[in-house]
Structures are given as C-alpha cells and as structure tokens.
Amino acid sequence: MSPKEKKVEQIQKEEKKVYLSIEDLPSVGNATAAKLREIGFSTIEALATATIAELAAAGIGEKRAAEIIAAAREAIEISWVTAKDLAELKKNVGRLTTGSKALDKLIGGGVETQTITEFFGEFGSGKSQICHQLAVNVQLPPERGGLNGGALYIDTENTFRIERIAQMAKFLGLDPDKVAERIIYAEAYNSDHQILLLEKADRIIKENNIKLIIIDSLTAHFRSEYVGRQSLPERQQKLNKHMHKLLRLARAFNAAAVVTNQVMARPDEYFSVMSVLPVGGHIVGHTSHTRVYLRKAAGKNVRIARLVSSPYLPEGEAIFKITENGVEDLEEEQ
Ligand code: GTP
Ligand code: MG
Predict the structure, then answer these.
(1) Ligand 1 lined by 127 (C-beta under 6 Å)
(2) Greater confidence, 262 or 212?
(3) Torsions phi, psi of 114, nearest 5?
(4) What pLDDT shows up at residue 312?
C-alpha cells in the first residue's frame, strides 16, 4: 500500500469511526494500551466512562488522559445529549424477569438495565436464589422476559450452585449445559479481590455479550474486613468506588447490575416493618437505584419483597415463592 493509499484508508477509518480496539484511538499506542489494560481498561466502552484520575494511576499524564477519554467517548458517542436523544437512549433500557410476575411488577416490569438493583434481607430470605434465577433468565429471548445475553457472577460467599442453575434451566426448557456455559463465574476471596475482578471485567463482558452482572454479596467481605468505627470511612469510600464502577459497566454495556446485601438490626426501630437496615448505609443506597427488601413470610417457601427505594416507582410489596423450579408466583388460592 502506497503512503497515499494508507492516508486515504486512515481518513476513511476515521470518518467511519471504526475503532476496533483501544489501540485504534488516537494517542493510544501499544505501550499506553498495555498500561490501560493492566488497570482494567481493555475496551473503548470502559474508557469512555473512565475518569482522568483513574488513567493517571497508570502513569498517563492528565492532558493525555483527557484526550483518550474524549476520543473513547466520541467513538461510542457518549456526550451531551438533547432530552429527545435521552428518550432514545432510555428506549434501549431492557427489563429482565425475576420469574415472578408480582415481583417484576413491583420493580416496574423486571430488573432494569443500565442501573443497579439491590436485594437485601436476612439469612435465607432468597437473595442468592434470585441471583441464580436471574443468571438463567437473562439468557432467555426478550419475548420470554430475558435479554438474550450471558451473566457475570461474582460470588463472595461460595454459595453459587451449578446444580441449582441446571434445575432452573430444565424447568424453563433450556439445555443446562448451554446455560452453564453462558454464566461466567468468579469467586472473590476478599474485598480487594472483589474490586479487582470488577475492574478487569470489561473485556469479558464485551466478549461474552454479558447482560447481567451479579455481585452476591456486595458487602460481606467489606463487613468482615473493616471492623470498628475507625475503619468505616475507608470501607465506605471503597464500596462507593466499587459501586460506581459497577454502574458505569452497566451503562456502557446496557447490562443489568444486581447486588445483594445483608442487614443489620436497627434497635431504635424494633417494632416497625423496617426493623433492619442494609449494610453500607447511604453510600450503597445512593448508587443502587432500586432497593428491594426481602423477608420470609408465613407459608412454605413464601417470601415478601418490599420496594424501599426507586427513583420513580411507589413503595409497595409483592409476594412470591421459591420452589424446586426457582422463583415463582404464588398459585391462585384454592
Ligand atoms: P444468605 O446468603 O445466607 O444471607 O441468604 P440468602 O438470602 O442468599 O438466601 P438464599 O437465596 O440462599 O435462600 C435459601 C432458601 O431458598 C432456602 O432456605 C430455601 O427455602 C430456598 N431454596 C434454596 N434452594 C432450594 C431448592 O432447591 N428447592 C427449594 N424448594 N427451595 C430452595
Ligand atoms: Mg446468599
């Protein structure tokens, strides 16, 4: 290819904005790309939502970092948008069924993409069961309430059970082996490992068409490692950053993000419905857009979900059950 042809090709490429990998961005050479990958930015989508400080951590100058982020944004057209365009973007928001119509309705039609949904509740309230069910359901086509995608599963308490996934998949008429193949799993050994897993997740998300990111549990490691009042600010700061990373991944890849959280007793409110509080307090609350409190109810396998915070939905409750088949609606009274 002559230099002129090369130039033409370059211009055409720029005009079409066909950026295939991070090296294709202006001012990202191989060395910079390697540095970026090292700190977890392997895709243009992730770079588009990075901050200058994050890139600076890889030894990239501030001016250069700003250029790279701007180029990444331009490449995927994240920028100022008009309210009309915003409505268009919102049209892309997908909904993922929980398996229970009543629970879906409570949260506005299923778990939403581009935001974080938090399920919190006591031991045995069904948080992990919902995570398992969502990891299967996300693989369904949209007509059946899925997102035609895979799931990324960060398990912090070693409670993920592949047999349970198979059981749920069979009930939905899916091939259990194929379903298992589309769940990308990692066990997080401590809070730093958990943070790192998410920081390095962008390439895996892109390559596997991940439409659901699960962290079960979001807070368990943080809670056991950061004990005592003096360590609280550090814990909150780390949790905050972790949640923002999750939110940015959910937005960049139009994926649903689901986290679980334990509760702690709230002695002052012992007799009220909300006699417990989710761990992590306001920080977790502010970044997760939909919060659902789960509790056991009278009756075999019956659970009550209570919507406690949503940007636009009214508070309310829904009843569902956990059976051999997975998360289901309660049958009609007989
Ligand atoms: P922690 O992680 O301990 O805080 O609890 P969790 O909220 O994650 O609870 P989890 O989702 O693990 O719920 C456990 C409950 O789900 C059990 O007590 C059972 O009621 C139900 N469950 C789990 N597996 C099965 C199953 O195979 N069949 C049936 N029928 N129920 C199940
Ligand atoms: Mg659990």
Answers:
(1) yes
(2) 212
(3) 70, 0
(4) 73
pLDDT tens digits, one per residue of 64-94? 999 998 888 877 765 455 666 667 667 789 9
Q: Is the peptide bond before 27 cis (omega within 30 degrees of 0)?
A: no
Q: What is the mean pLDDT of residues 37-49?
A: 86
Please give the number of the atom of ligand 1 that sits closest to the Cα of 161. 24
Q: How far is the CA of 159 from the centre of ligand 1 (A)?
A: 10
**What is the reported pLDDT for 85?**
63
Strands 95-96 and 111-112: antiparallel
Here the contacts of 143-146 (C-beta below 8 Å, separation 24 or greater) are: 144/97, 144/172, 145/95, 145/96, 145/97, 145/104, 145/110, 146/96, 146/97
Q: How many CB atoms lie within 10 A of CB 181?
A: 12
> Fold match between 3-75 and 89-329?
no
User: Cα(241)–Cα(9) distance, rounded to whole angstroms?
Assistant: 41
**What value does the mean pLDDT of the chain take?**
85
- pLDDT of 2 reads 72
* Segments making up each domain of the chain, as ranges: 3-75, 89-329
> What region does 18 belong to: left with phi over 0, alpha with psi -120 to 50, or beta?
beta
CATH superfamily of 89-329: P-loop containing nucleotide triphosphate hydrolases (3.40.50.300)
The domain defined by 3-75 folds into: DNA polymerase; domain 1 (1.10.150)
The finding on whether 324 has its CB within 6 A of some atom of ligand 1 is: yes
Q: Which of 103, 122, 128, 153 to mutate to test the pocket of ligand 1 (most atoms within 8 A of CB)?
A: 128
Residues 6+ apart with CB under 8 A from 152: 184, 186, 201, 204, 205, 208, 210, 212, 213, 214
Contacts of 230 (CB under 8 A, 6+ apart): none
User: Tens digits of per-residue pLDDT, 240-290?
Assistant: 889 988 988 998 889 999 999 988 765 554 444 455 666 665 555 556 578
- Banded pLDDT at 28 (limits 50, 70, 90): confident
3-state SS, residue 220: helix
